[in-house]
């Protein structure tokens, strides 16, 4: 694969990684138990019962958003690891190269358009 393209992709991935970590960091913290895992911060309970219910709901929203961001971050890290190994752009399922256009639009793609 073209070296210039790989360079551009790793820049994009590093940017995406920084963005995702920033978003996650606003309501979650890196898990001390598991590498690459994030724990949602528990909201502070300082109000009455009604407020508490709101906070619990907010916590659930944070958790599900956190999981989505965490999954995305996992893909970004995986793509960066593939670049290091020199196997970037290969479909995880069929082992064929992923179309460049697809990688440009979504650099952390791990499947080709047929397998996704
Ligand atoms: Zn495939």
UniProtKB/TrEMBL annotation:
The keyword Isomerase does not apply. The keyword Transport does not apply. GO terms for molecular function: zinc ion binding. InterPro entries: Znf_DskA_TraR (IPR000962), Znf_DskA_TraR_CS (IPR020458). Residues 87-116 form the Zinc finger DksA/TraR C4-type domain. Pfam families: zf-dskA_traR (PF01258). A zinc finger (dksA C4-type) spans 91-115. Residues 3-30 form a coiled coil. Keywords: Coiled coil, Metal-binding, Zinc, Zinc-finger. It comes from the Bacteria. This is Zinc finger DksA/TraR C4-type domain-containing protein. It comes from bacterium (Candidatus Gribaldobacteria) CG10_big_fil_rev_8_21_14_0_10_41_12.
